[in-house]
Write a structure and sequence with these properties.
Radius of gyration: 20 Å
Strand content: 35-45%
Structural class: mainly beta
Distance between the termini: 32 Å
Order of helices and strands: EEEEEEEEEEEEEEEEEEEEEEEEEEEEE
Oligomer: single chain
Helix content: under 10%
Length: 418
């Protein structure tokens, strides 16, 4: 079902609730089968801006329990300006909401998260950031890719760790950020980790407070990227590399990039971007994975998601995938990157159930950028994305530089600790 928009300028651009039935099979021991989990979808606009010099990109959120109004979470949303050159990004801005997205502060760029100058007078920036709540330390941990730009905004790859894994820490009590720090991952026995990039990933906090961080990497001789999952510790101040898991390879075009990890009913699932198609695999421990397989629908046909990321939406009673794809009357959109879909996943077969597919965010004449998923509380999960439009004028099909929040309001609590 495609949602029609009644107004491109209203703050909540869908006035009526769309209810989608998501069939989920429950087979937990000791518990009778429950009715299928449902969600109500509300599509809101957190920020709207048109500029001929930039558009907003990479909006991703973290939820801090209890610091909002009426015991709601404080939501911290990070985002960046996409500048004139390809993949040229500003420092990291952030916005906050204390009332579940009804109102937001304006984007602010802390000095700790601004560009800095490198030893060769190049610009050092950070992009593709994913923030998340680390309950044990009571901090927001933001993880991204440090990279280098020349004066024209072109990325420089001439040195080891021109791509590097970095993190910054946000204290929600003091509203203060730290500067970026590097993870300090070893180069590897064969120098395979010459460049490392946890870009646009979903990472996990384990029960002991340690981190499972998927990233992609490239050796000193270049070539296709590969993927691994890093196990790291975090004490609220410092993140430390412990080990890494299997090294997943695909010698096709640029290889495997932008991996995202989730845990569902005791098993780990990893989705992977490739230029030609998306891939998926699973694991018992989050470090050692089965052979990757292309994403398909449950009827065996290819999903059609290519050259862009997919992310998980995880409820205790169902596993879902958010993605873009071909075949949605969207060939006029670059890489078919709009609309943005969500559908239920069959975790046993690792396929997308076609009949459950629905539109999260509409196609309004431009592609949607790199997006994120966050569990807000036991009752809501959000998907966030921005329209890629940098000309300074609205598109005739409706795009106006909106940063969207697709709010999935669950029909029953998300039992995240089970």
């Amino acid at each position: 079902m495609v949602l029609s928009l009644s107004s491109v300028h209203s703050r909540s651009i869908i006035s009526r609730t769309a209810i989608f039935l998501i069939a989920t099979s429950l087979s937990n021991f000791g518990r009778a089968a429950e009715p299928p989990v449902e969600f109500q979808l509300h599509l809101d606009v957190a920020h709207q801006e048109l500029s001929p010099n930039y558009c907003w990109f990479h909006p991703r959120a973290a939820a801090v329990p209890g610091l909002g109004e009426k015991d709601d979470p404080l939501v911290v949303l990070t985002l960046q300006k996409h500048l004139g050159a390809s993949d040229h990004y500003s420092g990291l801005y952030y916005m906050t909401s204390r009332n579940l997205g009804r109102t937001w502060t304006k984007p602010v760029l802390p000095k700790q998260l601004e560009w800095r100058q490198g030893e060769d007078q190049e610009t050092i920036g950070v992009c593709d950031v994913t923030p998340g709540w680390h309950a044990r330390s009571e901090r927001v941990l933001a993880i991204g890719v440090q990279l280098r730009y020349n004066d024209a905004g072109v990325q420089l790859m001439d040195k080891p760790r021109s791509y590097d894994a970095v993190y910054a820490v946000f204290d929600p009590e003091t509203d203060a950020w730290t500067k970026w720090k590097t993870l300090g991952m070893p180069m590897g026995n064969e120098g395979q980790f010459h460049h490392i990039a946890p870009g646009c990933v979903q990472w996990l906090v384990q029960s002991d407070g340690s981190i499972l961080l998927p990233l992609y990497y490239q050796g000193r001789d270049g070539g296709p990227y590969s993927v691994t999952v890093v196990h790291a510790t975090f004490d609220g101040v410092t993140m430390k590399y412990v080990t890494h898991g299997d090294e997943l390879h695909l010698n096709e075009v640029r290889g495997l990039v932008e991996p995202s990890l989730t845990r569902f009913r005791g098993r780990y699932y990893l989705t992977l971007r490739n230029d030609k198609r998306g891939y998926v695999t699973s694991s018992d421990d989050g470090l050692h994975f089965d052979v990757i397989k292309p994403w398909t629908f449950d009827d065996g046909s290819e999903l059609g998601s290519y050259n862009t990321q997919q992310h998980w939406v995880t409820h205790s009673d169902g596993l879902f995938l958010s993605y873009t794809r071909r075949g949605a009357k969207n060939d006029h959109i670059m890489r078919n990157r709009a609309p943005l879909f969500i559908a239920r996943v069959d975790p046993e077969r690792m396929t997308v159930i076609r009949e459950s597919e629905t539109v999260l965010m509409p196609e309004r004449g431009v592609m949607l950028g790199n997006f994120g998923v966050v569990t807000i509380n036991d009752h809501e999960s959000w998907v966030t994305d921005s329209e890629f439009i940098a000309e300074g004028d609205p598109h005739e099909r409706g795009a106006d530089g909106s940063t969207f929040v697709a709010r999935l309001k669950w029909s029953r609590p998300n039992r995240r600790n089970e």
